[in-house]
Structures are given as structure tokens and as C-alpha cells.
Design a protein that fits this description.
Elements (H helix, E strand, L loop, with lengths): L7 H7 L26 H7 L12 H14 L3 E5 L2 H12 L5 E5 L4 H10 L6 E5 L4 H7 L4 E7 L11 H10 L3 E5 L4 H4 L9 E5 L13 E5 L1 H14 L5 H11 L2 H20 L4 E5 L9 H7 L6 E6 L3 H10 L4 E2 L9 E3 L11 H7 L5 E5 L5 H12 L4 H8 L2
Parallel strand pairs: 2-3, 2-4, 4-5, 5-6, 10-11
Antiparallel strand pairs: 1-7, 6-7, 8-9, 9-12, 11-12
Helix pairs in contact: 1-3, 3-10, 4-9, 11-15, 13-15
Length: about 400
Amino acid sequence: MKPHQYHSETEAVRGGTDLGRKNGPLATPIYQTSTFEAADVDAAIESTKTDMFYTRYANPTVSVVETAIAELEGADEARLFASGMGAHTSAIMALVKTGDHIVAQRDIYGGSTKFLSEWLPRMGVETSFVDSCDYDQYARAIRPNTRLLYLESPTNPTLKVIDLRKAVGIAKKHNLITMIDSTLATPINTRPMEFGIDLVFHSGTKYFGGHSDLIAGVIAGPRDLMLKIHDTRTILGITMDPHAAWLLLRGIKTLAVRVQRQNENALHIAQFLAQHSKVRQVHYPFLEGHPQRALAMEQMRGGGGMMSFEVDGSGEDARRLVESLRLFTLAVSLGGVDSLVTLPRYSSHAMISEAQRKSMGVSDSLIRVSVGIENAEDLIADLEQALAKVGRDVANLVSSR
């Protein structure tokens, strides 16, 4: 892990830029070009090793953003991808081959589950899924051909927190590469490499972008592993385009202040929901009563901007609630400045089986909330009026008989 020269708030704003005084643009230029002119054949050959050869390989605008993210994570290097799933799948394919085995948590994003359980077996790679917080299961699942330990913390959508030191200790004992989806934590709240994690993955669409206006994926890690991932990205052709990278860089500059506000808002809302008579359970790492709260407070600077809760009712009650909200927008994704709400049963985990959802605790009455930067009291008032409608039709029916 590379040492940090500045605090994360400073790295988010200034990371990736040349801090030397110069007569040049303050904002990073967009190199909106597919290819670059070479002075002669020798220069053309030499340019293949740079970010001024062909944009599928690299691009100066993209390079600035990659440097900024690497500094935020404390990594040697980072790579941008056209989507989060592009980053996730490319990194794993770069690291495993036919006959290899992966150990992964059971509680992870539905797309990750589908790739590991349905797509990789077509390539002769098997994955064993283990309970997220049962570290004995991690160890028991490891085989002689295991190459990768895949983690997610906090988990989507039930917000379980993984003991990173324990997971890394198990992986090191068996010579495994560790890769974590740290999308919900962000490098503002957690820097997994400080705990020994090898590769950090983010759906940059979420908190890094922060404005629900781009799609992006990020992998950060040591130079030797990033070289393999870079080659795979180039062959698969899923590099991020320069204009989207420029938007991503603009989002990263406000990452720290947005996440701080989202941390505060989410905790306030979680505390409100935990006291409400129509809420069965709230999942939020910094909320009193969360099973890994002490661990979360040790590993994280804030609880993050996402939570989930179960309505004390049916799936129909959950649907009625989300359709009654006014400030919370019913939309997939998370991490932006606008507060969003969705039902994981029909969104992030719709692509996997009912049995898999059940094993993760994803019920029909589970509601996922991505808290934005609006006023927390306004958001709570919106939830309160929507919760008042839960069970109302049933109550009216009984009273009319």
C-alpha cells in the first residue's frame, strides 16, 4: 500500500493533478479523441506504452482520474472501466483460469452472484459461497486450487460488515488474492488496503460519480496485478471514454463532502426508522443494535449513505410504501445526491433465484434506501407520511365489516 501524503478530503480534490506551478488549465482537459498522431514510426512504437496511443488502451483524461483514485485508495495504480460489472468481471477473468476455484461471500450484489455462480462455471471456474461473517466457513471452503477470496463490505443490501483483518489473515495463510467490493464504503469511510486487501473494486457509477449521470467501474491495486487487469481490459474493449471520465473526476472532487453529509443523514434516518412501529428491522452499520456495529466503527469513518429496512408487513405493504414517497425517488442505483428507494427483490437481486435471495435475507418486504444530501428532517417527514399508509387498506376493510 502506498503512503498517503494528504488527507482523503484533499486527495479527492487535488489527487491526480500536477501540483507544480505552471501556466495551464485548472480543470483537466477532455482528450476526446480515439487516436493520437505520431511524428514518425519510432515515436508510434514508443507511444504504445503511453496514454497517447489509442484510447481503448489509455487516454490522458482517463489517466488523471485513475491517478486520483489510486491516491485515494493508497494503491499503486487504478483502472477505469465502462461499467462496474465491466470492472468486476474483467478483474476476475484476469486473475483466474480454467480449473481454478474462488471463495466468495453469500451476501453480495446480485450481478456479482450471477457472474460467479452462472457465468464463470462455463469457463471451468467454480465458486464456493460462504456465510459473510462465519470465518471458519471461509477457511473450510478453501481448496488447493483456490486462487481468490472475493468480499463485499458493507454488503448490498443488508449492510453486513466484514472483519477485513480476519479475512486477509485467512487469505494470506493460503496464498490467495483478496478482492473487495467497497462501493458502499467509499475510500472516504474505509480504505481496505490499510487492512491488507489486495484489490479494491468500486462501481464508480455510485458515490464516485455522485450525480446519477454516468456509468463507471474502478479497480485499484498493486502494479503486478493491475498489469494483468489492464491487458484484459484492453482486449475486452471496456475502457471508460474520456468525457465520462471527466465527469467522474468532477464528481470525485466533491466526494468527501457528499459522503460526510450522507453519513449524517443516513444515521439520523436509521434512528428514526428503528423506533417506528411499522418497521420490523433496520440494517445500518452505525445503528445501535447492528450485529457488527463495533467492528464497523473500528473500520469505518462513517456508516455510509445506504441502508435497508423491512416493513412490518407484506411485500404489498413495501410496494405501497415506496410508491407513496415524494422526496425519495423510486429508482435503481445508489450513491447520488438525490435520495432513492427501491425493492431489491425487483432490482439489484432480481436476476438471482428466490433461494439465493432468501439465503441473503432479501425478502419481499425489504426496502433499500440510498440517502442523498437533502435535509434529513424533510426526508424523515416523507418516510413518516408513507409509513402511515402501510396496512391502511387492510385496517379500513376490517373496520367496514
